[in-house]
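Re: [ENG-882] Designed sequences occasionally contain unexpected residues at chain ends

Forwarding the minimal case from QA. Structure tokens:
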């Protein structure tokens, strides 16, 4: 069980904010650093076999890694494109349904253009799990309900709680044929960026804890997932602070 780290997050954010505004050069370096880190970790959580160094080679050098599946390379390129889009979307102060579809389309179009950015047309079957995802015919309405509830959720929640809930609620709808987890993590980071927080990474080493907390959220118990994400945000803040201190 992870503790709630919101108090520590608020304290560390004050220290991070004391370095702002950061120079354009530093912001660019940080953005490129997290492009590699978030792309690697988010893909690795879903079974992508490229490690951190290989992800860096694919994104920075445009090379393929011998012996690795083509799909793993395409996921890496697609995720990086969706990551870049985040920095356009933070200019607005809300999350729109079209933004979610755009992020999925950017991530998934190299893998399956026909289904990229479109809601799934088949029910989700999860063997051995007590999960009740919406049927395809329900997705349009469920997604509109999801978007409609976000402003109130944001208003009444701590920004980190809000970002965690955005992630969990989208995964529990599972609107796309594939890539739901990666889009949810991108959307969580969009919510964090829009509130002045830094990119948050979920390392593959805590995958089991992450999945378990998500499963609890599917049963309307969001506390374990909020607490888990708060720990991930705090650890990412510590790394972010080390980076900006080193770049000064």
């Amino acid at each position: 069980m992870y503790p709630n780290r919101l108090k520590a997050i608020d304290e560390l954010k004050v220290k991070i904010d004391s370095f702002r505004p950061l120079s354009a050069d530093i912001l660019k370096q940080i953005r490129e650093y997290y492009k590699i880190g978030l792309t690697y970790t988010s893909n690795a959580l879903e079974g992508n076999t490229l490690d951190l160094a290989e992800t860096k080679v694919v994104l920075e050098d445009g090379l393929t890694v011998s012996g690795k599946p083509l799909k793993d390379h395409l996921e890496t390129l697609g995720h990086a494109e969706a990551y870049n889009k985040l920095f356009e979307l933070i200019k607005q102060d809300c999350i729109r349904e079209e933004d979610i579809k755009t992020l999925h389309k950017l991530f998934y179009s190299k893998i399956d253009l026909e289904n990229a950015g479109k809601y799934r047309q088949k029910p989700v079957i999860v063997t051995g799990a007590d999960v009740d995802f919406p049927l395809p015919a329900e997705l349009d309405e469920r997604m509109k309900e999801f978007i409609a509830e976000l402003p109130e959720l944001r208003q009444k929640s701590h920004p980190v709680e809000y970002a965690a809930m955005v992630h969990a609620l989208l995964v529990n709808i599972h609107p796309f044929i594939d890539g739901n987890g990666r889009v949810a993590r991108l959307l969580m980071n969009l919510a964090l960026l829009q509130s002045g927080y830094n990119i948050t990474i979920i390392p593959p080493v805590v995958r089991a804890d992450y999945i378990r907390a998500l499963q609890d959220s599917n049963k309307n118990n969001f506390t374990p997932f909020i607490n888990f994400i708060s720990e991930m945000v705090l650890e990412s803040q510590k790394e972010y602070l080390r980076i900006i201190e080193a770049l000064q």
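QA comment: On inspection the terminal residues look reasonable. The chain has one domain: 6-247. Proposing we downgrade this to a documentation issue.
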